[in-house]
Amino acid sequence: MMKLIRVDDKRMDQIVSAHVKRDYDPYEDIDLAVQKIINDVRQNGDQALFNYTKQFDGVTLSSIKVSESEIEEALRQVSEQEKAVLQKAADNIRRFHEKQLEKTWLDDGTQGMILGQLIRPIERAGLYIPGGKAVYPSSVLMNAIPAKVAGVKYVVMVTPPDQSGSVSPYTLAAAQIAGVDEILKAGGAQAIGALAFGTETINAVDKIVGPGNIFVARAKRMVFGHVDIDMVAGPSEICIIAESGANAKYIAADLLSQAEHDEEASAILITDSLPLAEEVQQEVIHQLDQLERKEIAAASMQNHGKIFIVDHLESAFQIANQIAPEHLELMISEPTLHLAKVRHAGAVFLGEYSPEPLGDYFAGPNHTLPTSGTARFSSPLGVYDFLKKTSVIHYSREQLYQAKGEITALARMEGLTAHENAIHIRFDD
Ligand SMILES: NC(=O)c1ccc[n+]([C@@H]2O[C@H](COP(=O)([O-])OP(=O)(O)OC[C@H]3O[C@@H](n4cnc5c(N)ncnc54)[C@H](O)[C@@H]3O)[C@@H](O)[C@H]2O)c1
Ligand SMILES: N[C@H](CO)Cc1c[nH]c[nH+]1
Ligand SMILES: [Zn+2]
């Protein structure tokens, strides 16, 4: 089921790129469909949302907004123990993200100049929380808490309703714990269109964050520029580097933990040990059978489950950097000593007691991470995604006089005489 691929150093790049998908595009006409949905929402507002919710989620809604009484009822359905678990995870996530806060800075002005940077939160953030094939209260915490830590005043969450027209009580409990201000029942491209352009019920936001399926990802890409977005996150990915002697049961379990998300999720092992590779192959088959979502996990393993066999661990790191996976686990002795070799990954998990679900749910770092190789140039969702900067400039008369020659010379190089004049006019020359 997991394909074994031997990689020799000379042809590493070709072999790896032939086996690792980069883009996820199973439907040729997906952009057309998504554009049509967004245009419809822009023109017809709430009515388009009602229609698409009926069409794609199979439910006729009476209201898009989740009411106070629905939230109260949901909270009654979540046990105190479950609330405490959500609260503990939220505390860890908040503590981690508070370390990312940036502060406004300004020079003290003693040189007759003040240069600096104001840090301000965006005003309105829209969170997309997936709800098609599974419910994700953990994603509510991961997306809302950094926004609130950044100081965003208005955080609105959209998520598709289930067949009864409700939102999972766990999702609603997580939203309450994270301080989400408004919750709306809308999913897919139509929800992204509504957040970007607004409807009668939904006020447009400044930035849309959060993961979702291909319709959500494409819609986010289309509205980017009109609003900001965090990233275009694709299906989950895990890559494990393991050496001889690593625990095959743990490796198989961790690979399957991401495979169960989605038929398009990918799970990759890179090892210098053929016996370990074969053991993991068997273990995956054995453990798959016990999973509730075994059809999804099996399809994902069949489509994107790979084991690369290398001659030495150095090559394993080169391959992992080439893949730039969302999650990278190091199942090797003294993993921290090898951290410097990791160039591109969304999150790195060190040692056999740091399985990927620890990061998905609990440790504190964000689980919304760059996928499809985009860890080459982008970072996990964080407080910084909800902050923007404004530059501050002040010169005294004396400082401007000293810089006058250089500024006017630069203006002349560009042929911009009005710029030059704005300096001269202050000194009557
Ligand atoms: N990176 C992360 O942090 C993270 C976290 C959780 C989930 N995920 C990923 O998010 C994704 C969630 O996907 P999902 O489908 O379960 O939920 P989703 O909420 O993203 O998508 C469901 C919506 O898709 C739309 N849709 C479905 N079929 C359609 C069609 N034929 N045409 C137009 N629109 C259609 C509907 O509007 C529906 O409400 C998975 O890939 C999962 O792996 C990622
Ligand atoms: N692994 C997902 C990100 O790739 C996040 C998640 C949410 N719940 C479980 N897992
Ligand atoms: Zn996960």
From TrEMBL:
GO BP: any one term: L-histidine biosynthetic process
Cellular component annotations (GO), alphabetically ordered: cytosol
Listed pathway(s): Amino-acid biosynthesis; L-histidine biosynthesis; L-histidine from 5-phospho-alpha-D-ribose 1-diphosphate: step 9/9
InterPro entries for the chain: Ald_DH/histidinol_DH (IPR016161), Histidinol_DH_CS (IPR001692), Histidinol_DH_monofunct (IPR022695), Hstdl_DH (IPR012131)
Positions of NAD(+) binding: 128, 190, 213
Active site, per annotation: 326 (proton acceptor), 327 (proton acceptor)
Catalytic activity from the UniProt record: L-histidinol + 2 NAD(+) + H2O = L-histidine + 2 NADH + 3 H(+)
Gene Ontology molecular function terms on file: histidinol dehydrogenase activity; NAD binding; zinc ion binding
Enzyme Commission numbers on file: 1.1.1.23
PROSITE patterns xrefs: HISOL_DEHYDROGENASE (PS00611)
Cofactor field: Zn(2+)
Superkingdom, taxonomy of origin: Bacteria
Binding site for substrate: 236, 258, 261, 327, 360, 414, 419
Cofactor: binding comment: Binds 1 zinc ion per subunit.
Keywords in alphabetical order: Amino-acid biosynthesis, Histidine biosynthesis, Metal-binding, NAD, Oxidoreductase, Zinc
Binding-site residues for Zn(2+), renumbered to this chain: 258, 261, 360, 419
CDD domains: Histidinol_dh (cd06572)
Role played: Catalyzes the sequential NAD-dependent oxidations of L-histidinol to L-histidinaldehyde and then to L-histidine.
Family label: Belongs to the histidinol dehydrogenase family.
Protein name: Histidinol dehydrogenase
Gene: hisD
